[in-house]
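Deliverable D2.4 — example input (structure tokens):
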């Protein structure tokens, strides 16, 4: 499985489409494993505004305010973040102490429900070429 990297070509940009005109907010995701991890699964990681790749499941354990640290208002902000990534990736992939996987999955359901509601209320738009 590929290790996480700071190569923008390995990243995917997602548009939550809940901002005016359906442009943003955005989040950046990459599939991979931590360097040296012998796992056979590709896990999704999200890029936090401080340049740290965080295990997607870990993000669900954060408060709504902390989750906003993974949202970028504009594609210009996304490009600035990706252009600034250098060296080996900084990764947070440990689940929080004292939290069970079931608790994380429950928090994920709440977060996903919030996201689905935002997407239902969003107006579609065509991405510029």
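Example output (designed residues):
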């Amino acid at each position: 499985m590929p290790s996480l990297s700071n190569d923008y070509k390995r990243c995917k940009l997602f548009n939550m489409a809940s901002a005016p005109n359906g442009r943003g907010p955005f989040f950046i995701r990459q599939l991979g494993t931590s360097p040296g991890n012998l796992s056979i699964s590709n896990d999704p990681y999200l890029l936090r505004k401080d340049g740290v790749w965080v295990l997607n499941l870990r993000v669900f354990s954060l408060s709504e305010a902390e989750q906003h640290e993974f949202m970028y208002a504009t594609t210009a902000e996304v490009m600035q973040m990706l252009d600034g990534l250098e060296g080996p990736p900084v990764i947070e992939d440990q689940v929080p102490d004292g939290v069970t996987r079931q608790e994380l999955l429950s928090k994920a359901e709440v977060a996903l429900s919030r996201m689905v509601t935002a997407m239902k209320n969003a107006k579609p738009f065509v991405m510029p070429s």
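The chain has a mean pLDDT of 83.
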